[in-house]
């Protein structure tokens, strides 16, 4: 039995303002802020790229999400893989677009989720760094008798 590979697009929900982004990056920050700041890095590298078709869209708007699904379908994309930021203790970030899709049932387009757990990895690496530092410090300060 042969299975056909499916084309699924990653869906970054950073294209709308949020209170956390306002706090961390400044009022009104979205990923469009970074797109607009892009600079050419080599000859022929045209930057910043101005988005066509939907322009600097806002993912809070259902008609934008519908248009994206339609464009994706027309391009042969079979679904979206929504980034989902859930940091534990019920804390979610950038959840509005996906929650709206669930609530409204639109766009009627296949989807799946992927979790962004970078914050968890950063905490783990930080913890392990501290433990490693303390172990190394203990080893350096331990006195060994001369032979």
Automatic annotation (TrEMBL):
Source lineage: unclassified sequences, metagenomes, organismal metagenomes
Transmembrane segments: 113-133
Keywords attached to this entry: Membrane, Transmembrane, Transmembrane helix
PANTHER family associated with the record: GLYCOSYLTRANSFERASE (PTHR41244:SF1), RHAMNAN SYNTHESIS F (PTHR41244)
UniProt name for this protein: Lipopolysaccharide biosynthesis protein
InterPro entries assigned to the protein according to its UniProt record, in alphabetical order: WbsX (IPR032719)
């Amino acid at each position: 039995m042969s299975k056909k590979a499916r084309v699924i697009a990653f869906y970054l929900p950073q294209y709308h303002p949020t209170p956390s982004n306002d706090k961390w990056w400044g009022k009104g920050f979205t990923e469009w802020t970074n797109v607009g700041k892009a600079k050419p890095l080599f000859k022929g590298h045209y930057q910043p790229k101005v988005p066509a078709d939907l322009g600097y869209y806002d993912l809070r708007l259902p008609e934008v999400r519908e248009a994206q699904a339609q464009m994706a379908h027309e391009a042969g994309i079979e679904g979206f893989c929504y980034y989902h930021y859930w940091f534990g203790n019920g804390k979610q970030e950038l959840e509005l677009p996906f929650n709206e899709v669930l609530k409204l049932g639109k766009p009627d387009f296949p989807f799946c989720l992927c979790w962004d757990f970078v914050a968890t990895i950063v905490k783990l690496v930080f913890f392990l760094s501290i433990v490693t530092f303390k172990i190394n410090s203990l080893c350096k300060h331990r006195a060994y008798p001369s032979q």
